[in-house]
């Protein structure tokens, strides 16, 4: 379903809070280039920040893979965050608002899911976690009555 | 002008205007800087006659749950030390994102800009 466009994936390491800043900056640049509006850009960068911090804090570090998408109708951005940490034992619990194991507010996974269009968590205890989030540029129905 | 390089942390300056502390956050804020700021503000409140804190976030692109938690904790700590905190200048896109994220920061006083935040503090009460 996702047909990758001309641009290729960028992989960024996540090993410190400075790396989180790089991930945010890269996602913002990609989102702006792909034509995301300001609110969507802000949502994407916020989701990236939440997920990258999960990778750092809960996964012990890992990497982010940022890929521009083009499905023929609109453009999108796929963000994949992978770690080889302990994995998530109870995914349903981890996806619950307010549940936290890391001293945060417990909004990381559940909140990030609300900020994007597609969201998927692959995890296995002892093997690590990969979170994939995809957002598409909003398709505003063009009003062209006057032009036709 | 280029954005500051994200790899280079800069300490956030805390200015004193009479009995109000003014903190202006800009651009990328590292987690460590946010925690340092929390300590700086708390120690400034406890050692000087500060009755109010204004945190200007008009230059902040995003507030995630970490920064949101730090801001809420600064306000809670300041309140326990007899100072009121006003969060000023949140961008509309940030407000929309925070609500969707589920982080509505109840209990935090807000103002549209620094001028109005100073007015809120000068009026007293809550």
UniProtKB/TrEMBL annotation, chain A:
Against InterPro entries, the record matches this protein to: HATPase_C_sf (IPR036890), HATPase_dom (IPR003594)
Which Gene3D superfamilies does the record match to this protein? Histidine kinase-like ATPase, C-terminal domain
Q: Which SMART domains match?
A: HATPase_c
Domain Histidine kinase/HSP90-like ATPase, residue spans? 39-139
- What's the name of the protein? Anti-sigma regulatory factor
From TrEMBL, chain B:
A Pfam family found in this protein is STAS
Query: What's the protein called, per UniProt?
Result: STAS domain-containing protein
Residues of the STAS domain: 10-121
PANTHER family per UniProt: RSBT ANTAGONIST PROTEIN RSBS, RSBT ANTAGONIST PROTEIN RSBS-RELATED
Question: Which InterPro entries does the record cross-reference, listed alphabetically?
Answer: Bact_StressResp_Reg (IPR051932), STAS_dom (IPR002645), STAS_dom_sf (IPR036513)
């Amino acid at each position: 379903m996702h047909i990758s466009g001309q641009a290729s994936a960028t992989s960024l390491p996540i090993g410190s809070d400075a790396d989180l800043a790089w991930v945010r900056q890269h996602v913002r640049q990609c989102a702006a280039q792909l034509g995301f509006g300001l609110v969507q850009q802000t949502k994407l960068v916020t989701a990236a920040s939440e997920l990258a911090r999960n990778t750092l804090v809960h996964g012990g570090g890992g990497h982010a893979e940022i890929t521009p998408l083009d499905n023929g109708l609109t453009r999108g951005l796929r963000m994949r965050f992978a770690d080889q940490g302990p994995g998530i034992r109870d995914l349903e619990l981890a996806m619950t608002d307010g549940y936290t194991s890391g001293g945060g507010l417990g909004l990381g996974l559940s909140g990030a899911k609300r900020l994007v269009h597609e969201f998927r968590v692959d995890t296995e205890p002892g093997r690590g976690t990969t979170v994939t989030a995809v957002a598409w540029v909003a398709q505003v129905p063009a009003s062209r009555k006057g032009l036709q | 002008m280029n954005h500051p390089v994200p790899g280079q942390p800069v300490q956030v300056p805390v200015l004193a205007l009479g009995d109000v502390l003014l903190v202006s956050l800009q651009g990328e804020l590292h987690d460590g800087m946010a925690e340092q700021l929390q300590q700086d503000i708390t120690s400034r409140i406890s050692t000087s006659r500060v009755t109010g804190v204004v945190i200007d976030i008009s230059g902040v692109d995003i507030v995630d749950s970490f920064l949101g938690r730090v801001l809420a904790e600064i306000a809670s700590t300041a309140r326990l030390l007899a100072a009121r905190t006003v969060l000023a200048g949140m961008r509309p896109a940030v407000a929309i994102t925070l609500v969707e994220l589920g982080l509505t920061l109840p209990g935090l006083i807000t103002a549209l800009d620094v001028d109005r935040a100073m007015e809120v503090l000068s009026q007293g009460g809550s």
